[in-house]
Design a protein that fits this description.
Keywords: Signal. This protein is mainly beta. The chain has 1 helix and 9 strands, in the order αβββββββββ. Strands 1-2-3-6-7-8-9-4-5 form a 9-stranded antiparallel β-sheet, with no helix packed on it. The chain is globular and about 75 Å long.
Length: about 190
């Protein structure tokens, strides 16, 4: 009986080692995923005196790598996923107002149509898309035009952050020599 148990344990161990050799993990992505929150430190410390998150943006962060981004890598006048890989998604934990339009709490896709002097920012109902290839304008919740603000120091990796002005959360997108701000009114 001891020989049977010994043989069973040996076979189990051999199978387990062999099964582990089959797993091939993907290499690190060139555009790693990141998350930005408003308020900025809402989920980092989980203390009762910190505010709960109101907005969460999940996006992939491509790098410029010496390329001209807007007008070249990201074409002017075309829908862009605001990042790389899967489209960027935004979650509103409570109702907000964008461009004078109420946007109910929930998950949305976040797209843009960059131009040289302005961008059209798009909040869309469709989720789980790869890039902007299957973008459907009929599922737009809101579209807002925002001005481009050039920066003197280029931003190497696409970045999204928030600034605050009273009850307005400015979602700031920066990449290469360009920034734009989307004002989001939070109640």
């Amino acid at each position: 009986m001891k020989k049977f148990y010994l043989m069973a344990v040996t076979l189990f161990a051999a199978f387990t080692v062999q099964a582990q050799d089959v797993v091939k993990f993907a290499p690190l992505d060139n555009s790693p995923v990141d998350i930005s929150y408003f308020p900025n430190k809402a989920v980092k410390f989980k203390k009762t005196d910190n505010p709960n998150p109101v907005i969460k943006v999940t996006y992939a962060r491509p790098s410029a790598k010496g390329r001209t981004i807007f007008g070249d890598v990201v074409k002017f006048g075309e829908v862009w996923r605001v990042g790389a890989n899967e489209n960027t998604e935004i979650k509103f934990y409570k109702d907000v107002t964008i461009g004078g339009k109420k946007v109910p709490a929930g998950y949305y896709s976040f797209f843009a149509i960059p131009e040289k002097d302005k961008w059209t920012i798009i909040i869309n109902k469709e989720l789980d898309l790869w890039g902007g290839y299957a973008y459907d304008e009929s599922k737009d919740v809101v579209r807002v035009s925002v001005p481009v603000k050039p920066v003197s120091t280029p931003v190497e990796a696409l970045s999204i952050a928030f600034t605050t002005q009273g009850n307005v959360a400015n979602l700031v997108i920066g990449w290469d020599k360009t920034t734009v701000e989307l004002p989001i009114t939070v109640k």
